[in-house]
Write a structure and sequence with these properties.
8-stranded parallel barrel, 18% strand, alpha/beta, 8 helices, two-stranded antiparallel ribbon, TIM Barrel
Length: 282
């Protein structure tokens, strides 16, 4: 039986890494578009996007998201654009200010948890509002699950219609003070998602820092999809920095080849996730 193609998501910038951490981190809109294009050409079919202000600090400014979205649509036609509603970029409803741009997808964390130096707050009223905005603008949520309870919460929201269709769940492992990278937990995540949403549900996994490639390997081998990129990991190995987002994507492409899994192009990725086919000209 042919193995399902693997969707590669590239998290290009994030809210934390700076050029002091790695000069390859794209910060300006032009840098982000160029880096995304290189990753797209290498095999990424989803771009997970944050934006920065003129000082390089994270922001939820809808105008900056609009400029980034337009640039990616122009230079990476068909690529799935996923905008972040993460809490480091803004507070309250400002976190969803870009959703009227109607991106293909947006991240949605349905519960709170600890981060390295702060609490990542996702109060129920904000989660419900973000989910409602995604329904209004036809945005598919990607559930960023930092612990097991958030998978159950996503399922409860889905069952009562708060999520528009079967969500795409991504396990995030390796954030300090949150869920560590643990193989038995990883396997139980997969079991739980399939039990709650069905055996054919697509899922993804992300590992932070040095664990990025570890989780990439686990996910590809287990039939899931993979996230990589400079947001989560600025290093190639202990001794060297990652040269680019594209280089990190190529590493996942190579892992897919090792496991005889094709890499999903944008058309295949859209079919797997139930997203409409479209290009920049559409």
């Amino acid at each position: 039986m042919a193995k399902e193609a693997c969707i590669i998501c590239v998290a290009i910038t994030g809210s934390v890494p700076t050029k002091n951490d790695n000069p390859a981190v794209p910060v300006t809109i032009a840098e982000q578009v160029e880096s995304t294009h290189e990753a797209f050409e290498t095999g990424a079919s989803i771009a997970h996007c944050h934006v920065r202000d003129d000082e390089g600090k994270p922001t939820s400014d809808p105008e900056r998201f609009a400029a980034l979205k337009a640039g990616i649509e122009k230079h990476c036609p068909g690529m799935i654009i996923q905008l972040s509603t993460g809490g480091r970029s803004g507070a309250g409803n400002a976190r969803g200010g870009m959703l009227p741009l109607a991106p293909d997808m947006a991240s949605l964390t349905v519960g709170s948890n600890n981060f390295p130096t702060r609490v990542y707050e996702n109060p129920p009223d904000l989660v419900e509002w973000l989910a409602a905005e995604m329904r209004t603008y036809g945005v598919k949520p990607e559930i960023e699950a930092f612990d097991l309870s958030q998978i159950f919460q996503a399922h409860a929201m889905w069952k009562r219609g708060a999520l528009p269709d079967r969500p795409y769940v991504q396990f995030v492992m390796g954030v300090k003070n949150a869920m560590p990278v643990d193989r038995e937990v990883f396997d139980f995540y997969i079991h739980t998602v399939k039990r709650l949403f069905g055996d054919d549900v697509p899922w993804c996994a992300a590992g932070i820092g040095a664990n990025q490639v570890v989780v990439n390997r686990w996910s590809v081998a287990a039939g899931g999809h993979a996230r990589t990129g400079l947001e989560d990991n600025v290093r190639w190995d202990r001794d060297s920095l990652a040269p680019s987002n594209a280089a990190l994507v190529k590493r996942v492409v190579d892992i897919c080849e090792e496991h005889e899994r094709p890499v999903a192009d944008w058309r295949t990725a859209r079919a797997i996730l139930g997203l409409p086919l479209k290009t920049a000209a559409a």
